[in-house]
Amino acid sequence: MLGLTNVPGAGDNLIVVDEDRTARQIAEKRAARERNAAFAKRVRRVSLEDLDKVLKAGLVQELNLIIKGDASGAVEALEASLLQLDVGEEVDIRVLHRGVGAVTESDIDLAMGSDAIVIGYNVRAAGRAAQMAEREGVDVRYYSVIYQAIEEIEAALKGLLKPEYEEVELGTAEIREVFRSSKLGNIAGVLIRSGEVKRNTKARLLRDGKVIAEDLTIHGLRRFKDDVTEIREGFEGGINLGNYNDIKIDDVIATYEMREKPRA
């Protein structure tokens, strides 16, 4: 066959028409449809896997759902269970539509316009709805057990929550000597009392049990003449707190880091 401008793909249909103009129109429509489909795939819609990313980007503040099932009782039970999920006040869940029967093109249209996720309980996408969802990047989830749907949605919603952090103490150091340096300022000669002290970690200074300075940083650590990255409990060394020089003998340097708390 001669005159083809592009290499056809396996499975493509060949249509015979009477006029070149008609053939070109058909070809242009097909090309436009393929470009739109490719563009839609590049535009990522909300899915359960990327909820945390889109929240951090400020793109969504809630999870929109469309629920379809094989029976009204099952749909109502699933909706009630999802709306009762306790994931805090930071995240909201909305059921935009629920109904009985297969997932339809109308459901996909609604999901596209509202960045919703479609849940099918004991039903599937009908006709061209599945192709439409794939083409437009709509996340359609199928379940046959209600608790599996609830667990998966709950896990995704907890991923939407802003992380909570807690302070974890790393180590404490008691100042035994204060050395003056023209280049580095005051250097604390210390004995590590607990844990370990690491370079570049956060620290606070305590004097007689009271916090004297917050938000300090361990800029330098030395063991004898060597620069080190950490000093462990029971060992002596030198600590440089950068530009902070108000240190005295018997002061305590407490180091810590903020760690994300796992949600229950």
Task: Provide keyphrases for this structure.
264 residues; alpha+beta; Rossmann fold; Elongation Factor Tu (Ef-tu), domain 3; 6 helices
Explain what you see:
The protein has 264 residues and is an alpha+beta fold. It has two domains: 48-160, Translation initiation factor IF- 2, domain 3 (Rossmann fold); 165-261, Translation factors (Elongation Factor Tu (Ef-tu), domain 3, Beta Barrel). The protein has six helices and 13 strands. Helix 3 packs parallel to helix 6 (146-160) and helix 4 (105-114) packs parallel to helix 5. Strand 3, helix 5 and strand 4 (140-143) form a beta-alpha-beta unit. It has helices spanning 20-42, 51-56, 72-83, 105-114, 129-136, 146-160, and strands spanning 62-69, 92-100, 116-121, 140-143, 164-181, 185-198, 202-207, 210-217, 220-223, 226-227, 230-232, 236-240, 252-261.
Count of DSSP H/I helices: 6
Structural class: alpha+beta
**Percent of sequence in beta strands:** 35-45%
Query: What is the averaged pLDDT score?
Result: 82
Secondary-structure element order, N to C:
HHEHEHEHEHEEEEEEEEE
Number of domains: 2
Query: At the first level of CATH, what is the class of the largest domain?
Result: Alpha Beta
What fold name stands as the CATH topology of the largest domain?
A: Rossmann fold
Give me the count of strands. 13
Uncertain residue segments: 39-44
Short description:
This protein has 264 residues and is α+β, with helices and mostly antiparallel strands.
Please render the helix and strand layout as text:
Layout: H1 20-42, H2 51-56, E1 62-69, H3 72-83, E2 92-100, H4 105-114, E3 116-121, H5 129-136, E4 140-143, H6 146-160, E5 164-181, E6 185-198, E7 202-207, E8 210-217, E9 220-223, E10 226-227, E11 230-232, E12 236-240, E13 252-261
